[in-house]
Amino acid sequence: MLATSLQGNFLHLAKSDGNITIEGASVIDGDNAATNGVIHIINKQYNLASVIEAADAYTVFAPNNDAIESYIQEKKVATLEEDVLRYHVVLEEKLLKNDLHNGMHRNTMLGSSYPLGFFLRNDQLYVNEAPINYTNAATDKGVIHGLGKVLEIQKNRCDINDTTVIRTRECCAGYFGPQCQPCPGRAENVCFGNGICLDGINGTGVCECGEGFNGTACETCAEGKYGIHCDQAINACEISNGGCSAKAVCKRTTPGRRVCVCKAGYAGDGIMCREINPCLENNGGCHKYAECTQTGPNQAICNCLLKYTGDGKVCTLIDVCLTEHSVQDLIGPGPFTVLAPLSAAFDEEPRDTVFINNKAKIISSDIISTNGIIHIIDKLLSPQNLLITPKDASGRILDTGLLSVITDPIHTPVTLFWPSDQALQALPPEQQAFLFNEDNKDKLKEYLKFHVIRDSKILAVDLPRSATWKTLQGSELSVKCGAGSDIGELFLNGQTCRIVQRELLFDLGVAYGIDCLLIDPTLGGRCDAFTAFDVSGKKQKCLYDLPYRRNLEGCKQQCTLVIQLPKCCKGYFWPDCQACPGGPDTPCNNRGVCLDYYSATGQCKCNNGFNGTACELSCGCSDHGHCDDGITGSGQCVCELGWTGRLCDKQTVVDFCKQNNGGCAKVAKCSQKGTEVSCSCQKGYQGDGHSCTEIDLCADGLNGRCHEHATCQMTGPGKHKCKCKAHYVGDGLDCEPEQLPLDRCLQDNGQCHANADCVDLHFQDTTVGVFHLRSPLGQYKLTFDKAKEACAKEAATIATYNQLSYAQKVGPHKDCDDDGEDYDGYDDIGYNGNDEDGVLAMMLRIMMVVMIVMVMAKYHLCSAGWLDSGRVAYPTSYASQSCGSGVVGIVDYGTRSNKNEMWDVFCYRMKDVNCTCKAGYVGDGFSCSGNLLQVLMSFPSLTNFLTEVLAYSNSSARGRAFLKHLTDLSIRSTLFVPQNSGLGENETLSGQDIEHHLSNVSIFFYNDLVNGTILNTRLGSRLLITSSQDQHQVETRFVNGRAILQWDIFASNGIIHVISRPLKAPSTPVASSHTGLGTGVSFAIILVIGAIILAAYSYLRLNRRTTGFQRFESDEDIDVAALGKQQPEDISNPMYESTTSATPEPSYNPFTDPDDQPLGSSDPLGAL
Length: 1168
Hints:
By secondary structure, the chain is α+β, with helices and mostly antiparallel strands. Among the domains are: 1-41, no CATH class; 45-160, FAS1 domain (Roll); 175-221, Laminin, CATH 2.10.25; 240-275, Ribbon (Laminin), CATH 2.10.25.10; 393-523, FAS1 domain (Roll), CATH 2.30.180.10; 529-534 and 559-615, no CATH class; 619-652, Laminin (Ribbon); 656-692, Laminin (Ribbon), CATH 2.10.25. Helices cover 13% and strands 31% of the residues. The protein is built from 16 helices and 81 strands. The strands form 30 sheets. The chain has a seven-stranded mixed beta sheet with strand order 8-7-13-12-11-10-9. A seven-stranded mixed beta sheet has the order 76-75-81-80-79-78-77. β5 and β6 (37-42) form a beta hairpin. The longest helix has 27 residues, at 1077-1103. The protein is elongated and about 190 Å long. 28% of the residues are buried. One of its GO terms (molecular function) is low-density lipoprotein particle receptor activity.
């Protein structure tokens, strides 16, 4: 093992056949000494460098040392595999940081099945999951970006080669879409193992979840489910968002039910909400030559494809003139013979002795193409000692002295722009004759200097630039790229010349072929003419060869004289053939005629309306005048009628807009500038001003921007109103399903006791919790902040728009007259029994009932008030011009920008459920107690005594009478009951013992049982109350020596105290003594008086008693006086009413004779 510079990494050394191998590589040259170590040359390496360098461009994503070390330790490998290295390289593109766009994909050296994705997360650029730490480390042909993590190979595509020609592109399992993006979930656990992903090249990436699972990646449970296997039920929205998707909002509808609504940017039924992928429709709005990549819910970005540029919405083909195209000439018809070097030939030296130009060897030949033949060579050829020699149109070599200039080392290297033969032949014959005349070499030399750029060897890719190039002559030369149909072409001097051949390399520089001759107008344009004259001389015989007959003899002149006639080209003037004013291409700016040719003036004869050296000037008249020009003209402006001034720019006309609106439409705005009238439609109308039509915002195809569950109604030109449809509530811009209040008493009796009557005050409220408040100072005296304070004082909040809408829609639940009583129609219409009068009265009664229903069916209050979010509105239920201008519904003033405006306020308060114990029961409604026997049966700790009572009732008539006594609501009693621990199961009580526990005189509360109190029992025996205190001053009370453990357990016909042990009745009844009739009468009178005093005292105590039994911890007073009464009257709630009514008196006297009271039930046991 040999340690490397990577911590924890080692190279494996082995010895095979006497040779040392390192990781399987043989040492072919060892022990090469260096000053700081030794080098061994091995025969194994990754052959990637030559492949990468052979590409025209490349981009490498290189992990740092720490990343490589972590990867090697994690994977337990010796070094990075070759496939891993190839996965980090993109060929044929030099991608700088600015070229890496969010959502873009590029293929790696591993092929199209292994693309890299680029993503921007929190302003950090990532390649797949690896962050880019540093960027734009440039090389000569590429760029390197540093990574903080080694990229792990992800195979997104699994293409299928059906034949040798057709390739079917397919995504691997767990990937979907054109870019083979990963399915939701983890790469190794698609859809979290709880569903199946719709993957593939045409897949949508949607997870079809298994039973009980839900969510984009099946990561949550379905509605009503929870647990690790999503197989346990839950209630509504209380747990796990009600079973809705994590991307949905759970809204409670009715008790035990809910509805799921997907959030913005997601689509589905709420149970399953998936991100809206805009790329799946119309390519996400991207250009057809762009790649659409989803970046979030209903969000996507567009990136132009390779070889195209733009913002993704619009992509155009990259101007190929900005890149090198050395072989562009090969697209011609040919034929050509191409000597093409191998890719490796750029880096290797030839080994054989057969060369072309003593330099390149032919290694493969005779490769035939449609327009030529190719021989492959192993070396790049370049011309040597190549000189561009100018020739005339006839191909004659011209020695102008320019060759000595461009070969001078002072000027080399040079860039030449040489006219093609076709360009020279296209010149006028007279101009050719002038330029190539031996006497005009100096002028031709000046022309040729326009085609030379000294001290520069400029490649085609560098020619186009914003600055101009300087020629050897000193003039400026610009190179621009073509556009439109000329994309890929290069043009000189504003598209006057085209480059037709590129980068003709020679050892002094580079040359380009152009299709024109560059001329500087200041050098003049000579187009001399040549004329032949016959000169008289000696005649001689000649033979004419005629095609249509035999040869004919004749004679001809011996001499012919050719004379050169000096002449300027068109656009130049004599004598030096200088350019006419305005330039030779546009002499006199095309506004006159140049006196050129043989004229020595070169002046411009301007057209009417123009003057100046190059006819560049005019009178400058406005559109309302014309110039008096010409030789005899004054040069002044002649104005139209109604205009004056030197330039005819001052108006003296009338205002046409006052006459028939200037010809504009009646609903258009007329404006006049000078004598010109312009028309424009007013707001709410559209047209050209002469014809204006109303704008119907509801016809824009988008329902006037109203909610999908709302209707759009045009209310005027350019105005509309949104109104929610039936069974929906809202302002029209936002509508939600109508959810009328439900009677909470219908479910679990409104949490009231089973023996209590439930009344849902909120359900019974005619305005569903909404009420109107006004300042004590009068109407419209509340700012928004004061309005919130006013509602808070009423334990309420400011109502929302929807809450006010519910109040307006719901209205009262029954028809009432002004007194609040049920209306029957007979209060105001008399009926005397007469048939005709009866029919009339009945009809009038029905009409009034209908009118009252119409008026009172909804909330109507003509007083605007604040709503939540600073909105102001008020409800109306019938049309009235004085209230809402006939609008029925919510008269909305909108959200007020000034919260200091003065209005009233609409408040909202959720009212409570009112619970009242039924007749025969007592309590606060949430807890109700029955008679003594029912209460006794409800306590498990008192079952032993109950068993004895039931046994006693089954044994004798007196026992049955005792049991009936416990259920008699007309009798008030105090019962002492021993707890189970004090009365064993094997211990029995006699009938007398049982009746000894009951005092039927009246109800005695615990506070009434003071020391020394004596109670008479049903037997006539007596019970003595005593008390004692321990060292901590804690008092304990006893009845006949039995400790009272619990007390004041209320029943509808008495009260129960729990004692420690049972009471034992005396062995003999207490005897009554009769000393005489007078004594008996006196005792009876005293007894009656005492009973009356005791009853009055108990009555007062019952009306102000607070319970002391720890099992009844309510702070509310218990109306013991109402024990056993029939259905109680409704009691006004001070929290929700403006006034408080007094507590009603009981419907009977609790101290009347029991025989006068009816029994509450025919069943003496009630609940038995």
